[in-house]
Amino acid sequence: SPRNLRVLLDMDGVLADFEGQFLKNFREKYPQDPFVPLEDRSGFYVTKQYYALGQDIGTKAFGIYEEKGFFLSLQPIEGAIEAAREMADMEGVDVYICTSPIKKYTHCVVEKYQWLDKHLGKEWMERMILTRDKTVINGDLLIDDKPNITGGMSPPQWQHVLFTSWHNRDVTLQGGQVRLDGWLPHSGWRDILERKRQE
Ligand code: T3P
What we know:
By secondary structure, this protein is α/β, with parallel strands linked by helices.
C-alpha cells in the first residue's frame, strides 16, 4: 500500500481561536480604546491593523498576546478538536501540529504544549512541530490560515489548504491553494484529504 498521507495542522487560527481571544482581552483591558471588530479584520497580523489606529494602540495590542496565559487560554475553534481526533484515527493518515511561536517566546512556547495537552492529550506531544519556517517541513497538506507562507524552501513540499478566518475571507487563492471553511462535519475536510491521497 502507498505511504501514509502527512497532514500538518496549524494551531492559531485553525485549532485555537487567537483572534477571538485577542479581541476579548483587548476590549476588557482597554475599554476606552478603538478596536477592530472581527468582521473588519484584514491582513494576517492583528498588530499591524492596530498600529494603523495609532502607535500606542499597536503597542497595547502586542502586549495582549505576549501576556502570560494568553496562548493557553485560547478556545478551540468550533469542531477542531473532534476533527483533529478523527483525522488522527484515519487509516493511512499521519497528523502533525505545525505551529510558529511568537518572537517573545517566554510564555508562548510552553503554553502551546500545555494547550495541546489540555485539549488533545499527552500522546499529541509526539506530533508537535515548532518552527518559524514551515516551508522546510515535509508534508502533503498544510492546513493554515496564513495566506502567504514563505521560507527557505520554495516551493514547499506541501499543498497549502487555506483555512478560512475573518482576516483572509476575501483573499484570492494562489498557486495550488484550496480553501477549507471550518471544521464542521460538512466543511469538506475529508474530501480534501481523499483527493490528495488519490493524486
Ligand atoms: P501559528 O503558527 O500556530 O498560526 O506568529 C506566531 C504565531 O502567532 C503563529 O502561530 C501565528 C500567531 N499569530 C497570529 O495568529 N496573529 C497575529 O497577529 C500574530 C502576531 C501571531
